[in-house]
Amino acid sequence: MAKRSIAAIIGLGLALTACAGMREHRGFIIDKSLAQAIQPGIDNKDSVTKTLGRPTFTGQFDPNDWYYVSRNTTQLAFRDPRVTDQTVLHVRFDQAGNVTAVNQTGKELIAAVDPSGDKTPTLGRKRSFFDELFGNIGTISQPGLPGSRQQ
User: Fold this and answer.
1) What does the longest C-alpha to C-alpha distance in the chain come to?
2) pLDDT tens track for 93-146
3) Looking at residue 110, what is its pLDDT?
């Protein structure tokens, strides 16, 4: 009887530790005092690099946009991670490399994308699995189709 209760306690302990939450930080660690020290009209690319380091990424359409991204998430067992805190520091430069603007946003800009179910909506006729699998048999050798031989 004592062995069963010990085994039950160990099993319960293992089950509870499997459901433990995980916290994770990804990206840049933003020091608020250093971020506030970046001043438009005073700083340039070199001084921003010395103060904050290299950016997380630069703008896709304009390399004079630098982004420093920091994100904290929590996750319980096998569920999807949930964002608890996010900071995006956007530093914009002019063509000469001088800071023109510094903007900071939080997790309010995170977009929730909800998939449209388990099927992809398409235009046109609906075909079954077997129609898709066997539908092209015999159509290649018909005259007038691309790839067919005409005599």
Assistant:
1) 88
2) 999 999 999 999 988 877 777 776 777 667 777 778 888 788 777 666 556 655
3) 79
**9-33 pLDDT per residue, tens:** 777 666 666 566 788 888 888 888 8
> Which pTM value belongs to this model?
0.61
DSSP for 117-136 reads: -SS---SS----HHHHHHTT
Cite the beta strand spans of the chain per DSSP E. Answer: 21-27, 57-58, 65-76, 82-93, 99-105
C-alpha to C-alpha distance for 90 and 68, rounded to whole angstroms:
7
Spell out the domains of the chain, with CATH numbers in brackets: 18-110 (3.30.1450)
Structural tokens at position 101: 């603007």
C-beta separation of 132 from 139 below 8 A: no
Q: Rounded to an integer, what distance in angstroms lies between the CA atom of residue 71 and that of residue 77?
A: 19
Q: Under DSSP, is residue 64 helix (H, G, I), strand (E, B) or coil?
A: coil
Cα–Cα–Cα angle for 40, 103, 46, rounded to 5 degrees: 45
